[in-house]
Design a protein that fits this description.
This protein is mostly helical and 108 residues long. The chain is 68% helix and 0% strand. Residues 95-108 have a biased composition (Basic and acidic residues).
């Protein structure tokens, strides 16, 4: 095989390996996956087949339950408390949301 052809082939293999290693084993957030499928269902530009596939994926992933959320233990408590304080002081937030934020603030 010609040297240039070998070089081109080896570059293609490295590119495929790099892509496979960075995308194939990456863990997906189940909430993001479900959210993407919900967006697909509501997108007027997607085909009926794609929408049906998204409905099937949602049914399989949810199995009649809720979508798993990110664990609270992975959240920075200072950031959570700051967000709740901002909610309490935001004039554009409903009284119900402010009350809920005040109650949750006692946890932090």
């Amino acid at each position: 095989m010609h040297r240039a052809a070998l070089f081109k082939q080896s570059r293609a293999i490295l590119t495929l390996q790099r892509h496979f290693n960075t995308t194939a084993f990456r863990m997906s957030n189940p909430g993001n996956v479900i959210g993407g499928h919900k967006a697909n269902i509501n997108n007027p530009n997607t085909s009926d087949e794609a929408k049906q596939h998204s409905r099937q994926v949602i049914d399989e992933k949810m199995e009649g339950g809720d979508v798993p959320q990110a664990a609270d233990q992975n959240k920075n408590p200072g950031n959570v408390a700051g967000g709740l304080k901002a909610t309490v002081n935001n004039p554009n937030v409903s009284d119900e949301a402010k009350q809920s934020a005040k109650e949750r603030l006692t946890e932090y």
